[in-house]
Amino acid sequence: MKVLVTGGAGYIGSIMVQMLLNNDHEVVIVDRTKNSTVEANKRAKFYQQDILDMAKLEEILKTEQPNAVIHFAGLISMEESTRKPELYFKVNTFGSLSLITAMLNAGINNLIFSSSAGVYGNTDVVPIVESGVKKPTNPYGESKLLVEQMLLWFWRTKNLSSLSLRYYNLAGASSDGSLGETHEPETHIIPLALQAAQEGAEFKLFGDDYPTTDGTCVRDYIHVVDLCQAHLMALSSLINDPRHDAYNVGTGRGWSNRQVVDTVKKITQKELLVKIEVRRPGDAAELVADSTKIKQALGWKPQHSDLAEIVQSAWEYAGKQ
Ligand SMILES: NC(=O)c1ccc[n+]([C@@H]2O[C@H](COP(=O)([O-])OP(=O)(O)OC[C@H]3O[C@@H](n4cnc5c(N)ncnc54)[C@H](O)[C@@H]3O)[C@@H](O)[C@H]2O)c1
After folding, report:
1. How far is the CA of 167 from the centre of ligand 1 (A)?
2. Are residues 194 and 93 in the same domain?
3. 181 falls within a domain
C-alpha cells in the first residue's frame, strides 16, 4: 500500500519509513526538515513541507493519493510545553487539524495518529487502561488529547477512520542499527544517561520525592522497533476494519528512573555521576500501560522491550555517532 508519513525525518518516523519500505510499501514523507535520515531512506519520496500549510498538504495528498497517513510530525517535549504552550497547541493540535482537513478535502480516509501516555496525566489506577481518567499534567499531553477528541468527531461526522496509538517511553535503534534517537535538544532519559556515561559528565535526575517505590518517576519503556511493528499491524487492521479507536502501546512493566540509571551503568560498564534535581514541571509520577486492548485487537506483542535490550540497542547506536 502507499503510505504518507508526516514527521518521517524524525526519530520514530524514519525508523517507520525504513520498516514500511522493507515490507514493500510505497512511502511518501512530509516533514519540514530534511536531514540524513531522509537520505538513509531515499527510496521514499520526500516533500519538505510544514503541516501547518493546509493548502500545500491538500495538494500533496491529491497528487499522491496514499491509502493511509501515519502522522508523527509534532513537538515532543513535555517540559518545553509548560514554557511554550502556544507553540504546542499550534503545531500539535492545529497542525493535526490542518492535516485532517487536507485529508478530508483529498478524500483520504485512514489515519494512524501518534498520541502519548501524556494524555492520562497523574492517575491513581496503574496500569492505565484506555478508558481511564485523562487529566494531562502538561500542554503537550493536552495537545494530543484534543486531537484524539477531534478524531472521534471526524469519525462520527465524516467517516474519517483513525487509530490513536498512545506511546509510552520510546527508546532504542532500528534493527540494523543505522537509525536511532537524536533529538535536538535531547530530553529523554536513556539517551541523556548514555551520553553522560560516555562523557563522564553529570547526569541530572529530576525528582526523588515522587510517591513511587524509590521516589523517582516510573515509566513503561518500549523499543522503537516494537512500536513501529504496532503501526504496521494497526495500518492493515484499519484498512480492513474502518473505525475510530485508541490503543496504549506499552509493555505493562514500569521501571523507575533509578532502575534506568542502574541498567545504563550495567550495560555501559561505566560510572554515572547522578545529581538529584528538583522535579521537572509537568512530569507525572507513574505511567505504565495496560496493553491488553492492542494485544487483543491487533495480535501485537512487544518482542524487544526488556529495558536491558532497549538500553543495549541505544548504546550501540550512540557508539556509532
Ligand atoms: N519519542 C517518544 O518517546 C514519544 C512518546 C510519545 C509520543 N511520541 C510522539 O511521536 C511522534 C514522533 O516523535 P519523535 O520522537 O520521532 O520526534 P522527532 O522530533 O524526532 O520527530 C518529529 C518530526 O516532526 C517534524 N515536524 C515537527 N513539526 C513539524 C511541522 N510543523 N511540519 C512538518 N514537520 C514537523 C520534525 O521536523 C521531526 O522530523 C511525535 O508526535 C511525538 O509526540 C513520541
Report:
1. 12
2. no
3. no
What is the per-residue pLDDT across 253-286, written as a single tens digit (0 to 9) for each? 999 999 999 999 999 999 999 999 999 988 889 9
The grid cell for 4 is: 504518507
Active site residues: 140
Which of 72, 80, 116, 145 for mutating ligand 1's site (highest number of atoms within 8 Å of CB)? Answer: 72
C-alpha cell at 48: 519538505
- Residues 73, 113: one domain? yes
Residues 261 and 167 in one domain: no
Domain identity same for 26 and 130: yes
What's the pLDDT at 155? 98
135 and 193 in a single domain? The answer is no
**Predicted pLDDT at 169:** 96
Mutate to test the pocket of ligand 1, among 18, 31, 128 (most ligand atoms within 8 A of CB): 31
Bin 46: left if φ > 0, else alpha if -120 < ψ < 50, else beta: beta
Count of structural domains, the chain = 2
The CA 102 to ligand 1 mean position distance, Å, reads 19
pLDDT digits (tens, 9 = 90+) for 88-136: 999 999 999 999 999 999 999 999 999 999 999 988 899 999 999 999 9
In a domain, 201, yes or no: yes
What range defines the domain where residue 81 resides?
Answer: 2-172+222-250
Name the residue at shortest CA distance from atom 43 of ligand 1.
Answer: 76
Ligand 1 is surrounded, with C-beta below 6 A, by 7, 9-13, 31-33, 50-52, 72-74, 76, 91, 95, 114, 116, 167, 169-170, 183
Ligand 1 centre to CA of 192 (Å) is: 18
From the CA of 8, give the closest atom in ligand 1: 39
**What b/e sequence results for 176-205 when a residue is b if at least 16 CB atoms lie within 10 Å of its CB, and e otherwise?**
eeebbbbeeeeebbbbbbbebbeeeeebeb
